[in-house]
Inverse folding.
C-alpha cells in the first residue's frame, strides 16, 4: 500500500535552509533589470546612444541636443558602454 507522506529525497535528514535577505533579493532583481536594459539597448539602432557632434545655431535646438547628449551619456555610463 502507498503511503500518504510525500517523499523526502536524499538522506531524509532535514537541514535548515538559509533564507535570502531582502538585500540579496533586491541585488538579484537589480542584476536582472540591468541585463534586461542592456538587451533592450542592443535592439536599438546605434545612433540612438551616439553623441551628436553637430553644431547648431538655433539656441532652442542647441539646448535640446545638449540635453539629449547628457541623457545619452548617462545611459551609456549605466550600461557600462564607452563612447566610441
Amino acid at each position: 500500500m502507498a503511503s500518504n507522506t510525500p517523499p523526502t529525497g536524499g538522506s531524509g535528514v532535514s537541514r535548515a535552509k538559509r533564507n535570502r535577505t531582502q538585500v540579496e533579493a533586491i541585488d538579484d532583481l537589480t542584476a536582472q533589470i540591468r541585463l534586461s536594459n542592456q538587451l533592450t539597448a542592443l535592439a536599438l539602432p546605434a545612433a540612438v546612444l551616439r553623441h551628436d557632434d553637430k553644431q547648431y545655431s538655433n539656441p532652442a535646438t542647441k539646448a535640446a541636443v545638449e540635453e539629449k547628449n547628457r541623457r545619452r551619456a548617462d545611459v551609456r555610463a549605466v550600461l557600462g558602454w564607452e563612447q566610441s
Summary: Helices lie at 22-43, 59-79. The CA atoms of residues 14 and 77 lie 47 Å apart. The first helix runs from residue 22 to 43.
